[in-house]
Amino acid sequence: MLRQGDKATIKTRDGKTRDGKPHSDSSRIDLRDGEGPAPGDAVATARGVSKIYGEGETEVRALDDIDVDFQAGKLTAIMGPSGSGKSTLLHCMAGLDSVTTGEVRIGGELISELTDKRLTLLRRQRMGFIFQAFNLVPTLSAEENILLPLLLGGRKPDEQWEAQVIESLGLGDRLHHLPDELSGGQQQRVAVARALVTKPEIIFADEPTGNLDSTAGQEVLGFLRRAVDEWQQTVVMVTHDPGAASYADLVIFLRDGKVTGHLLDPTAEAVFDRIKALEV
Ligand SMILES: Nc1ncnc2c1ncn2[C@@H]1O[C@H](COP(=O)(O)OP(=O)(O)OP(=O)(O)O)[C@@H](O)[C@H]1O
Ligand SMILES: [Mg+2]
C-alpha cells in the first residue's frame, strides 16, 4: 500500500518530471484550499462492497466483497479483464450506481445514506467525471461545457482558476467551438477541464483514452498526471492500457469482481506482465 505522506511527483527514467518541466512552487495551488484530507489519506473508501445485477439464473456478481482505499493526491488506475467489474466499481464509488451490500464513503460521507438530492450535490460539487465517450453537451460551446457543473450548481466560476485550467489544457483558441468542431483529443481535454473546474475532491475517469489515438491519449494522461502533481488532485482511472496505467501511482487489479493485487509505482512492462498472469 501507499505510504503516508508519499509524494506523488512522477519522474521519467531520466529523472525529469513527466512533462519535462521543472516544478514551480508558485504554480502550485492546493485545490482543497487547506480543507479536506492530507495527501496519503483516503478520499474514497469501499468496505465489503458487493454489487449483484439480476436474480436467479441471470444473477451476475459484478463486485464481490471489495475493500479499497483511494488516496488523496494520487492517481490510481483500476485494471482487469473485460467484465471484471471496473466500471461497476467506479460507478458505485461515485454513487452513480447503488451497492448491494457494503459501504462506500467519499470524504467520510456514507453515500448510501444520502438522499438523491444530497448525492446529486455531492457529485456536482465534490466529484469530477471523465468518460471514454467524452459526454459533452453537443449544443454548448467548449467553454459552456467546461463551466456547466458550476452553472448547474449556481456557483460562480473562479475566473483565475478557470483561466489556468484552460491555459494548461491548451484550449484557449477553442473555447467558442462546439464539440463536433473539435478533435477527439480536444473534446477530451474539454472534459478534463470540466472535471477540474469545480476543484473536486476526486475525479473518476472511465477509460479516458479509450477513444483517442496514442498522441492525444498521452496528452490527456499527462494532464491528469499534472493535476495530481501540481494541483494535488485525486484521480481514479479505469484503463485497459498498461501504458496508461504506468502514469498512475498505484494500480489495482480486478478479476471476477474481486481485488486480486496492487502494483505501486508501475511501469508499463510490470503492468503488462501482471495482466498476462491474470488472464491465464
Ligand atoms: N446494468 C447491468 N445489468 C446487468 N449486468 C451488468 C450491468 N452492468 C454490468 N453488468 C455485468 O457486471 C459485470 C461487470 O461489468 P463492468 O461493466 O463493471 O465490467 P468492466 O470491467 O468495466 O468491463 P469492460 O472492460 O468491458 O468495460 C459484467 O459481467 C457485466 O455484464
Ligand atoms: Mg467498463
Through-space gap between termini: 25 Å
CATH superfamily of the domain at 72-95 and 115-279: P-loop containing nucleotide triphosphate hydrolases
Ligand identities: adenosine-5'-triphosphate, magnesium ion
Q: Note the main sheet.
A: 6 strands, mixed
User: Segments where pLDDT lies below 50 for 5+ residues?
Assistant: 1-34
Order of helices and strands: EEEHEEHEHHHEHEHEEH
What form results from the Cα inertia axes?
A: globular
Question: Class of the domain at 72-95 and 115-279 in CATH?
Answer: Alpha Beta
Architecture (CATH level 2) name of the domain at 72-95 and 115-279: 3-Layer(aba) Sandwich
Range of helix content: 25-40%
Would you give the CATH topology of the domain at 72-95 and 115-279? Rossmann fold
Number of helices: 8
Got a strand count?
Answer: 10
Describe this entry's structure for a reader.
- The chain has about 280 residues and is α/β, with parallel strands linked by helices.
- It has a domain at about 70-95 and about 115-280: 3-Layer(aba) Sandwich (Rossmann fold), CATH 3.40.50.
- Helices cover about 30% and strands about 25% of the residues.
- It has eight helices and ten strands.
- The strands form two sheets. A six-stranded mixed beta sheet has the order 6-7-8-3-9-10, with helices on both faces. A four-stranded antiparallel beta sheet has the order 2-1-4-5, covered by helices on one side.
- A hairpin with a 2-residue loop joins strand 9 (about 250-255) and strand 10 (about 260-265).
- Residues about 1-35 have low confidence and may be disordered.
- Adenosine-5'-triphosphate (ATP) binds near residues 54 and 83.
- Magnesium ion binds near residues 86 and 87.
